[in-house]
Amino acid sequence: MITVCIRYTIDIRKHGEFERYARDWPDPIRRCGGQLIGYFLPTKMAGPTNIAYALINFASLAAYEQYREALMRDEGAKENFGFADRSECILIEERSVLRQVA
């Protein structure tokens, strides 16, 4: 099992747009083979207010690669990518592949 961690730097004026983007992902992620742990938005209580995360589990690195290919063909995913581009709510997107040890 691997977990893909996506770290987003978001426009602080567009939390609402990013939240919409995040809420539109569960179905495409499941259809394409990922197991969504969740999307996480920052709060104003502590830490940076422009960093958000998504965590998605996959059976293997090969399963993640197949997911990426399927995502590019999925209509819901394409619509969501387009929304993010039009809204410009995401400034930077970084991925890490993690493995759980405990």
Give a verbal description of the structure.
The chain has 102 residues and is an alpha+beta fold. The protein has one domain (2-98): Alpha-Beta Plaits (2-Layer Sandwich). The chain is built from four helices and four strands. The chain has helices at 15-23, 26-32, 61-73, 75-87, and strands at residues 2-10, 35-40, 51-58, 90-98. It has a four-stranded antiparallel β-sheet.
Topology overview:
Blueprint: E1 2-10, H1 15-23, H2 26-32, E2 35-40, E3 51-58, H3 61-73, H4 75-87, E4 90-98
Antiparallel strand pairs: 1-3, 1-4, 2-3
Short key terms for the protein model shown above:
102 residues; alpha+beta; Alpha-Beta Plaits; four-stranded antiparallel beta sheet; 4 helices; globular
Specify Rg, calculated over alpha carbons.
14 Å
> What is the percentage of strand-forming residues?
25-35%
Number of helices: 4
Helix content: 40-55%
Question: Strands of the largest sheet, in order across it?
Answer: 2-3-1-4
Q: Give the tally of β-strands.
A: 4
Low-confidence sequence ranges: none
CATH architecture type: 2-Layer Sandwich
Mean pLDDT: 95
For the record, the CATH class is Alpha Beta
Following the backbone from N to C, one meets helices and strands in this order, namely EHHEEHHE
The CATH topology corresponds to: Alpha-Beta Plaits
Q: How many angstroms separate the termini?
A: 12 Å
Main beta sheet: strand number and arrangement? 4 strands, antiparallel
Brief characterization of the structure:
By secondary structure, the chain is α+β, with helices and mostly antiparallel strands.
